[in-house]
């Protein structure tokens, strides 16, 4: 009976234990550089981009294979009372047309065919796939840059929320002292009930802000872990110092660097790929010349049992195709025209975003100076309010107001630092650095 109970307990513990997560665990303090490196290793978004590069590499290899000789082996066994022609299996290249006699017979042959001249159709198709491959590589770099920017933004927002919570906790400690002192004075009949209720109300407001900021921090940290491709339940310690980052260079120099952004470089490759596609279609108007050879190991007739072979050069040209080549060329040229317009739109968007981010950084810098001045003034107001209260000339409400003014100035400074750093992160993304 005891063994049965013990076994049941073990099974319950096993089934009650949480399932292990497939996401990699993230442990220990995490600074900004470490967060970005983890994101580069584990982010699903970056894995998708890398898979896209591999896919285009395979397409390039497929296009190159058309320049190489193709070899097929064909075997047929037939019986009947009439001759017929049959081609080799549809997916096998090169295709072979086989004559079958009106008796039971077998055939085994091999055929090889290689392009000598295709008007640039195959070579331009290879160049187009190579440009697609390069475009996919630039897309992977763009995703990497964008991921780094989003990690920085999320990390900074989480730090801001955590630092704001700490500011409110310091304020709460002061508010607890206010409530305690006001309660003692009210019990002694030295202040009205209004002052005590005001102190309790301000303490409740501080506690409410702490709860809200703590929940917002946990949510933002989960978002950050998702960007890193890790367990969103991880209670990771963010160890980066919350200080202003160094501003980038001059706006004019930054604008000149936009042309090297992966977005525009990707469009350059896609535009060249579209040009090559158009040239590939144009090559189909020219003769297609192949060299071929075929050898038979088993012949289909009993009258000629000896194997044979044949070699030669085949030249073909399409005279009429109902406009198929023209329409495919028009499609390639329309795609080219659209890509050129898209590149210009992307360049203008980058310029606009650079101006916006620069203005945001400039505003944040000005707000930082204002906040530092306000913080100095608030500290002085709190000092004077304390002196007035202790000398009997002031009231407790003056101290409460001064404490809240100091907290607001501190929060204003934290917000300005966050906005400055996020703008710097945005500028680095726009200029192609991280």
Summarize the structure.
This protein has 434 residues and is of the alpha+beta class. The chain has nine helices and six strands.
Q: Care to describe what's here?
A:
This protein has nine helices and six strands, in the order αααββββααααββαα. It has helices at residues 2-16, 32-42, 44-65, 121-187, 193-227, 251-256, 262-283, 324-390, 396-430; strands at residues 70-78, 84-87, 97-100, 105-117, 288-298, 309-316. It has a four-stranded antiparallel β-sheet, with no helix packed on it. Helix 4 packs antiparallel against helix 7 (262-283). It starts with a helix and ends with a helix. The model is unreliable at 1-6 and 8-21 (pLDDT under 50).
Strand composition percent: 5-15%
Unreliable runs, pLDDT <50, ≥5 residues? 1-6, 8-21
Main sheet specs:
4 strands, antiparallel
Q: Note the run of SSEs as H and E.
A: HHHEEEEHHHHEEHH
Cα distance spanning the termini: 65 Å
Q: Which assembly state applies to the chains in this document?
A: single chain
How many whole angstroms does the radius of gyration measure? 38 Å
> What general form does the structure show?
elongated
The percent of residues in helical segments reads: 55-70%
Averaged pLDDT: 86
Q: Which structural class do the helices and strands define?
A: alpha+beta
Give the strand order of the largest sheet, numbering strands 1, 2, ... along the chain: 1-4-5-6
Please, how many helices?
9
Number of β-strand runs:
6
């Amino acid at each position: 009976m005891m063994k049965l109970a013990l076994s049941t307990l073990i099974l319950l513990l096993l089934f009650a234990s949480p399932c292990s997560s497939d996401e990699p665990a993230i442990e220990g303090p995490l600074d900004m550089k470490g967060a970005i490196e983890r994101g580069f290793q584990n982010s699903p978004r970056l894995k998708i981009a890398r898979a896209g590069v591999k896919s285009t590499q395979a397409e390039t290899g497929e296009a190159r294979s058309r320049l190489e000789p193709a070899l097929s082996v064909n075997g047929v066994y037939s019986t009947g009372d009439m001759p017929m022609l049959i081609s080799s299996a549809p997916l096998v290249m090169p295709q072979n047309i086989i004559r079958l006699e009106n008796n039971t017979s077998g055939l085994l042959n091999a055929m090889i065919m290689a392009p000598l001249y295709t008007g640039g159709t195959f070579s331009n198709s290879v160049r187009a796939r190579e440009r697609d491959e390069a475009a996919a590589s630039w897309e992977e770099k763009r995703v990497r840059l964008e991921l780094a920017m989003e990690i920085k933004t999320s990390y900074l927002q989480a730090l801001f929320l955590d630092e704001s919570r700490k500011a409110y906790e310091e304020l709460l400690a002061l508010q607890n002292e206010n409530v305690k002192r006001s309660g003692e004075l009210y019990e002694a009949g030295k202040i009205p009930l209004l002052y005590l209720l005001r102190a309790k109300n301000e303490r409740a407001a501080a506690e409410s802000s702490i709860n809200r900021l703590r929940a917002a921090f946990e949510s933002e940290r989960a978002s950050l872990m998702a960007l890193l491709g890790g367990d969103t339940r991880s209670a990771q310690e963010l160890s980066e110092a919350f200080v202003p980052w160094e501003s980038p260079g001059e706006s004019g120099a930054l604008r000149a660097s936009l042309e090297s952004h992966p977005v525009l470089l990707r469009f350059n490759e896609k535009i060249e790929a579209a040009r090559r596609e158009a040239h590939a279609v144009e090559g189909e108007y020219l003769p297609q010349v192949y060299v071929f050879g075929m050898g038979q190991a088993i012949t289909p007739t009993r009258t000629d049992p000896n194997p044979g072979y044949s070699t030669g050069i085949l030249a073909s040209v399409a005279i009429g195709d109902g406009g198929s080549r023209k329409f495919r060329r028009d499609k390639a040229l329309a795609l080219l025209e659209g890509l050129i317009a898209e590149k210009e739109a992307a360049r203008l968007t980058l310029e606009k975003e650079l101006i916006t981010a620069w203005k945001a950084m400039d505003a944040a810098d000005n707000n930082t100076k204002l906040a530092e001045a306000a913080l100095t003034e608030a500290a002085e107001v709190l000092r004077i309010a304390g002196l007035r209260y202790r000398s009997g000339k002031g009231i407790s409400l003056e101290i409460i107001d001064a404490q809240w003014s100091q907290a607001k100035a501190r929060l204003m400074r934290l917000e300005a630092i966050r906005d400055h750093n996020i703008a710097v992160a945005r500028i680095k993304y726009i200029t192609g650095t991280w």
